[in-house]
Design brief:
Elements (H helix, E strand, L loop, with lengths): L9 H9 L10 H4 L9 E5 L2 E4 H18 L6 E5 L4 H13 L2 E5 L5 H11 L3 E5 L9 H9 L5 E5 L6 E2 H6 L3 E3 L2 E3 L15 E6 L9 E5 H14 L7 E4 L6 H5 L2 H8 L2 E4 L5 H11 L3 E4 L1 H11 L11 E4 L6 H11 L2 E7 L5 E3 L6 H6 L3 E2 L5 E5 L12 E6 L11 H7 L6 E9 L5 E6 L3 E4 L2 E4 H9 L4 E11 L3 E10 L6 H10 L10 E4 L13 H16 L10
């Protein structure tokens, strides 16, 4: 059994194979390719724990064997919800070995998101951490298993009574679950993997109410990993700090941890991207590169002003996830002591990099150019006509690692793709004369909150579930640190409805904290366009004006003595 997905047309698939983009080698090769010559080279550091390539492959094999003995089969699916710990990568490679296709949820995701993913893929297995409040007890796990009957197996990182120990499954010791009594013993035969099939699901930052899933095949994703590692000049001396969430496309494959593993370097895990956490790790492990979103860059610049010595080993800083302003970009090299690489990519496929030999202008002012010569990029106007270079327009793309359709979403795919299979990314960009992209905004109904994407429709639906709210519109508002934050405009039948009550309701809905509106404005009515839709352009301008006015210094009032 294999996961259904929208394939590339045969002529393009043949082209991608002829040009060597698709090699028909599964991504398990990322680890196994090092076992002959670099097996004892350091691969992974998590706190005080270390893994060589031999040890990382061994743990992935042991976990894969435990999974097979539990009865999971190739083509089945898994829900994974882990923090930035070594087990994330062990699980990732183990699932690939047995042909189980996971959704790797962000650790910031909550009940709402996890339920939506599980209902879409109907997993047989969930691998979670008791560090998350959802899984500190077994109540949610039990409810999800009842709601999604296919979900029969739970592996837990940490202490929990509702599932098996992930550590025991990795070590190959006895695992008990329900009627199963599973003992790792004799060697098993691994399923034969087909590289043209789905390896895992990436998460969309789309604008619709239900989170969409992106099927990524071994062939397309492995090409992106290999090409990214080459562009970023990774080698066995690379030491990469993974400070953003490990499942993010940025930190997974651009070039991310998978690119570093492919090149034979070492990955160091950080729990989160604050300078307090990251600076000591960079100094201790002589980290050479890392990746951040612009709000984190601001914090690093502030911390480095006091002491930059911890960053002496850092050679390259990648910045992506949101537009990096030129003034902030210009400060990175003189104040952090490392060079900047801008990255603009999407979980759906297309990734752009500034190159190490680019001019200063390109590095500071553009978000790079595509990985591949066969990345096809169109910039179009509202009528779908190509615009001249230097003119803003909507970004459409297709290529050897850009997917062809969201999972099980035929209606949405008819909107997300044009008749020629070009994906409408929702980004508004300018292409320079020499083929570099400059991101100028979004045309999708989405807020980019410091690199975390918030779908307006999703939050609006939750707001409208409150009987007192009759209309709701979520829009982006400018923020000096995060780039954008969210503002909810609401019309309510209850003038005494408090912001605290609204936020409490949203938390009860189980949405991730970063999706909670940063600001809530009550209005008598929402502005409408001439076709009867909520005029979000007017709302964005309204809140931008308010933010600007509030940021202006207030005149001092005369005080009578």
């Amino acid at each position: 059994m294999s996961i259904a997905f929208t394939p590339w047309p045969s002529d393009l698939a043949d082209l991608y194979r002829r040009k060597g983009y698709w090699t028909d080698v599964p991504m398990t090769d990322i680890l196994t390719r090092h076992l002959d010559e670099r097996a004892d080279h350091l691969a992974l550091i998590c706190g005080e724990r270390r893994w060589t390539y031999r040890q990382l492959e061994r743990d992935a094999e042991r976990l894969a064997a435990s999974l097979l003995r539990l009865g999971v089969k190739p083509g089945e699916t898994a829900l994974v919800h882990l923090p930035n710990v070594a087990e994330f990568y062990i699980v990732f490679f183990a699932l690939m070995k047995v042909g189980v296709v996971p959704v790797n949820a962000l650790f910031s995701h909550n009940r709402h998101e996890l339920t939506a993913y599980a209902e879409q893929i109907r997993p047989i297995l969930a691998i979670v951490s008791s560090r998350h409040s959802l899984f500190a007890e077994g109540e949610f796990a039990q409810a999800l298993s009842q709601q999604v009957p296919s979900l029969r197996h739970w592996l837990v990182e940490g202490e929990a009574e509702f599932g098996c120990s992930l550590a025991a499954a990795i070590s190959g010791t006895q695992v008990e679950q329900g009627s199963h009594n599973v003992q790792a013993a004799e060697a098993l035969t691994w399923p034969e993997l087909t590289a043209s099939e789905v390896a895992f699901f990436q998460l969309s930052g789309g604008s619709t109410g239900t989170p969409k899933l992106i099927p990524r095949t071994h062939n397309d994703y492995y090409y992106s990993v290999r090409a990214s590692a080459d562009i970023c000049q990774l080698d066995s001396d690379t030491v990469f700090l993974c400070a953003l969430p490990a499942p993010h496309n940025f930190t997974l494959s651009s070039p991310g941890a998978l690119g570093v593993f492919y090149a034979g370097g070492a990955v160091v895990l950080a729990a989160e991207p604050s300078p307090m956490t990251c600076f000591p790790l960079i100094k201790r492990h002589q980290v050479t590169m890392t990746s951040l979103v612009p709000p984190a860059v601001t914090l690093w610049l502030q911390a480095a002003a006091d002491d930059r010595s911890a960053l002496d080993s850092l050679q390259w800083l990648q910045v992506g996830g949101a537009r990096l302003g030129e003034s902030l970009a210009r400060r990175i090299e003189p104040e952090l002591g490392c060079r900047l690489q801008q990255v603009f990519g999407m979980a759906e496929g297309l990734v752009n990099y500034t190159r190490f030999d680019d001019s200063e202008w390109h590095v500071l002012n553009t978000q790079g150019r595509p990985i591949s010569d066969d990345d096809e990029v169109r910039i179009v106007d509202e009528d779908g006509q190509d615009v001249p270079r230097g003119t803003p327009g909507a970004l459409l793309t297709r290529g050897p690692y850009t997917f062809r359709g969201y999972y099980n979403s035929p209606e949405h795919n008819r909107v997300a793709f044009d008749q020629d299979g070009f994906y409408r990314s929702g980004d508004v960009v300018v292409m320079t004369e020499d083929g570099y992209l400059i991101v100028v905004g979004r045309d999708k109904d989405q807020i980019n909150r410091g690199g975390e994407k918030v779908a307006a429709e999703e939050i609006e639906n939750q707001l409208l579930a409150l009987p007192e709210i009759t209309q709701a519109a979520l829009v982006a508002m400018p923020d000096a640190v995060m780039g954008e934050k969210s503002c909810a405009f609401i019309v309510t039948s209850n003038p005494k409805l408090k912001t605290l009550s609204i936020r409490k309701h949203l938390r009860t809905c189980g949405i991730a904290d970063y999706k909670l509106p940063d600001r809530i404005e009550k209005v008598d009515a929402l502005p409408m366009t001439h076709v009867g839709k909520i005029d979000k352009k007017a709302l964005r301008q309204l809140i931008a004006n308010q933010v600007q006015a509030q940021s202006q210094p207030q005149p001092e009032k005369d005080v009578l003595s």
